[in-house]
Specification:
Blueprint lengths: L1 H31 L12 E7 L3 E7 L6 E8 L4 E6 L10 E5 L4 E11 L8 E7 L2 H5 L6 E6 L5 E5 L8 E9 L5 E7 L6 E4 L7 E8 L9 E2 L3 E4 L2 E2 L1 H4 L8 E4 L4 E4 L4 E2 L12 E2 L5 E6 L7 E12 L2 E11 L5 E7 L15 E3 L9 E8 L3 E11 L4 E12 L1
Antiparallel strand pairs: 1-2, 2-5, 3-4, 3-6, 6-7, 8-9, 9-12, 10-11, 10-13, 13-14, 13-15, 16-28, 17-18, 18-20, 19-22, 20-21, 21-28, 22-27, 23-26, 23-28, 24-25, 24-27
Length: about 400
């Protein structure tokens, strides 16, 4: 009997708990679901954020829920936002918004959609790097390892290799061809072993170029480096010099010796072979100084040179030579219409460049730079007093570097 009473009591107690729980659920429903079930608009799908210059572009897809009327993008810890109205179509819509005026660095974004009743979707989060002045000021033009005229009249530009993640997109090159026509040539970059040929290039001129960068694969803004000048190595001998080898004589003695034809200027003390000198018929015609043999007089401060007018630039006076000289011989590039005396070398004021070593049986390079158009004298200075000696030059060249 007692057992039946206990069972009945337990059943009654359980019913009380169930009725109480249902009452609480009804109160929750009445309080929070008075308008019916909670509604969430469809969220933006396939969200992507693209990097830009002080800005970001947010894109996505609306594939369902025709009731969406707007979306908002939040950033800066939800302190800033932008709202974009949406007019849905029957198909897939592709929303896009560009947010400008952003600080440089990594930015986080939250996107929510809305319907006409003000219902809000669950958030979608994305992020993107913003690039600006700090990134831009660190960019440099792609390096050029060599730029040189080719036998076919083109200019070949060899570019320095870059890493795949450097972001180099292309190089815009401005140059002038041999008819005086100006060209803007855009070359798409390759990372390694990359070169560019510029046809019919005007010898002696240079190029101006700039490099374009994309900071990362998702960037939608391109960054540009300022234009930079670069020389193109060219043999400009024919443009500025004459009688450069094999050398032409003005007069000769009927044998080996002669005098150099214009525009070469030869000092009288070099003509120490019965009034001839500076020219010898060896090897088809060479520029020369010789003393000692056959009683020829010593040469003191002898000079052979020609004067040319050159535009600003970097140059190499290139001399092929053979020598049995005992005393120093100087290759000189001097500002003005004459060469310095040997006593003033190597510290003569106003002179562009000269080597201080004696000739060798090789090629001698005299490198010099001028900053404005001017007259430059190119040639040789020597004092030869140490017995039998000579040096000769079969050809010279002028290279613009």
């Amino acid at each position: 009997m007692k057992q039946h009473q206990l069972t009945a009591s337990c059943i009654i107690l359980a019913l009380v708990f169930i009725i109480s729980a249902c009452t609480k659920m009804d109160e929750y429903r009445d309080k929070y679901m008075a308008g019916g079930a909670i509604t969430y608009p469809g969220k933006m799908d396939s969200v992507k954020a693209f990097s830009g210059k002080s800005r970001v572009m947010i894109t996505g897809l609306f594939t369902s829920d025709p009731k969406i009327t707007a979306y908002k993008v939040f950033w800066n810890s939800r302190q800033d936002s932008v709202e974009v109205a949406v007019k849905r179509t029957a198909g897939v819509d592709t929303p896009k918004v560009i947010i400008s005026g952003l600080p440089e660095g990594l930015m986080n974004f939250e996107i929510r959609t809305y319907d006409a009743a003000g219902h809000v979707s669950i958030p979608v989060n994305t992020s993107a790097n913003v690039f600006g002045q700090l990134y831009e000021t660190a960019l440099i033009n792609r390096g050029i390892s060599n730029a040189e005229m080719q036998p076919d009249g083109s200019a070949l530009i060899n570019w320095v290799d870059v890493n795949a993640d450097a972001g180099v997109v292309n190089m815009l090159i401005k140059y002038e061809d041999n008819t005086g026509t100006l060209h803007d040539t855009l070359v798409v970059s390759a990372n390694t072993s990359f070169s560019t040929s510029l046809p019919a290039f005007r010898s002696g001129s240079g190029i101006s170029y700039r490099t374009a960068y994309l900071p990362n694969p998702t960037a939608f803004d391109t960054f540009y480096v300022a234009f930079q000048q670069h020389s193109v190595k060219a043999d400009v001998t024919a443009q500025y010099m004459q009688n450069t080898g094999p050398f032409v004589r003005a007069t000769y003695d009927g044998g080996r010796w002669g005098t150099l034809a214009a525009p070469w200027i030869t000092s009288p003390n070099v003509m120490n072979h019965s009034g001839f000198g500076g020219y010898v018929a060896d090897a088809g015609g060479c520029l020369v100084m010789e003393s000692g043999w056959g009683g020829t007089a010593n040469i003191i401060n002898g000079k052979i040179y020609q004067t040319v007018t050159l535009p600003a630039g970097n140059y190499i006076f290139l001399v092929n030579c053979y020598t049995e000289a005992l005393d120093p011989v100087y290759v000189v590039a001097a500002a003005g219409n004459t060469l310095p005396d040997i006593s003033d070398l190597p510290a003569a004021a106003g002179y562009i460049a000269f080597p201080t070593t004696r000739f060798a049986n090789a090629t001698v390079q005299c490198q010099f730079t001028i900053t404005q158009p001017q007259a430059v004298s190119l040639g040789f200075v020597a004092t030869m007093t140490s017995g039998n000696q000579y040096w000769r030059v079969p050809s010279v060249k002028l290279i613009k570097n």
